[in-house]
Specification:
The termini are far apart. The chain is built from nine helices and no strands. It has about 200 residues and is mainly α.
Length: about 200
């Protein structure tokens, strides 16, 4: 009986070690895959996105979902810089499907929607663009970029409403702006103020 107990105990120990070994291998593979996807999201996001359909959504780890969201966001930002706003909008939409609380993706999603409306040049779309830019401004309150685009939209609607145009440029310049946008906003603000002054002088 003692021999039998020792044998059962020995088998039980071996079984536990085997299970632990399999679990360790699984965790190593899972971690390596997550790390590989994360690296791919940064270095080659288009390649990772090409694998998205082949991955089962129900089997994705949080790390992999985060990597896919990052890949879409990276491609969206690149498309945005290139002026491919529809493509950028699609990537930011997919980012938000995967990561709904991504603040920067939400901000950029509103911006590109505004850009698409602005690009049409139609007055109704320009007013809609202003509303969308205002929504972007509520997401990142310290950014002057939405206000810069609001000023441009007001100007495109009609360059005679200088108060709204100048006020929007002033808001943009009073907040955080990329150097190139700050230069453009400063120049456009000066031009709008000059036109305003010339118009006032004309009607004196």
């Amino acid at each position: 009986m003692i021999h039998s107990k020792k044998t059962k105990s020995s088998f039980s120990l071996r079984g536990n070690k085997t299970k632990q070994g399999f679990l360790l291998i699984y965790l190593l593979i899972w971690n390596c895959a997550g790390g590989a996807y994360q690296d791919m999201a940064i270095e080659d996001p288009a390649r990772l996105i090409s694998l998205e359909d082949s991955l089962s959504r129900s089997d994705l780890s949080e790390s992999t979902i985060g990597s896919l969201a990052l890949a879409h966001k990276t491609l969206g930002e690149k498309a945005m810089v290139a002026g491919k706003y529809e493509t950028a909008r699609d990537h930011f939409s997919k980012t938000l499907n995967l990561s709904p609380k991504d603040t920067m993706a939400t901000f950029n999603h509103f911006l590109v929607q505004g850009h698409i409306l602005y690009k049409s040049g139609k007055e109704d779309n320009l007013w809609d663009a202003i509303q969308v830019y205002h929504r972007a401004a509520t997401i990142i309150e310290g950014s002057g970029e939405p206000h810069y685009h609001i000023a441009r939209a007001y100007h495109k609607i009609g360059d005679k409403d200088f108060d709204l145009i100048i006020e929007s440029y002033d808001r943009a310049l009073g907040l955080e702006l990329k150097p190139e946008l700050r230069e453009l906003a400063s120049r456009a603000r000066s031009e709008a103020a000059d036109r305003d002054n010339r118009l006032k002088d004309f009607w004196k």
